[in-house]
Sequence to fold (302 residues):
Amino acid sequence: MGKASRRRTADSMHVGENRTRDLSAGPAPFVARPFEGLTGETDWVAMREVVPAATATVTFAAGIVAADRPQTATVATMLPLAWSGLRRIDGAVMVALQSGSTTGDASRDVAQVLLATVAAEPGVPLPSSPLAKPTTPRLQDVLDPSAAFEVTVHEGFDFWVADAGDLDEGGKEALEQANASAIPTTKLTSAPSAYWCRVGKRTYLRWVLPHHEDAATDALARLHAAAATSLGQGTRLLGAFRACGLLVPVWDLDPGLAAADYETEVARMAARLAEALTQTGTLNAEERRARSGLLSRQVTLR
Fold:
């Protein structure tokens, strides 16, 4: 057999191996909207992409973890040293949404950290975790779908420890530095997953919309073309960004007003948006221009 024939035979063997390779050993497949189907999907997205310091409690579905292990856990925006998870000395389970290994499916990533952390012994952190695989369960598989998902926004990261007074000097200094970096944020009550924040001397509203991102973009474009996206004097719609398959519009606000001052205007905006979402016809020329403008002004604020 000549060299060329041997090469062709070897190449054919490799192709055959690839065809029969166990795909479950690869990384988790991409999911455009990873938190879809979870209670509080938009707040999951907000905690992962928008809010600096917040926590929420999740409950495992029956039979997911052993009876002698915690049946609830705390999901947090961030943990010390960018840890993926932490089993505190008191036994509490905490996992971070803004750190850790990432694949194409954030739901599998977080579920893997949750299960690994609940299996750890008290006092053990999980600095990182292996990449999730296609066989890794998703949050939708391991969490109780009937349990509420209520976000608590914090001024800082004192929730990392049961009692900050127990920290040594180094720990206290690290916590103070983390607290100093937290952006003041308030969750509004007039619309789900609408968060007011102060960045330097400016204030913004970031609102995670629950609708399909294309439908949400069209609705905002209709309102913008009709000059109906203002939240009052001194405000303007800056643009929007996409996060975990959802649209997050961002408004520039009057820095002299507090979050509570915008509850009424945001409620009115929610009603206008709901009305715009019922309009399913083709966008007119002015609305198409507004849509193009929204897409060209994608913003990210941290």
Notes: The helical segments are 3-20, 41-49, 106-119, 139-142, 169-181, 213-225, 263-277, 285-296.
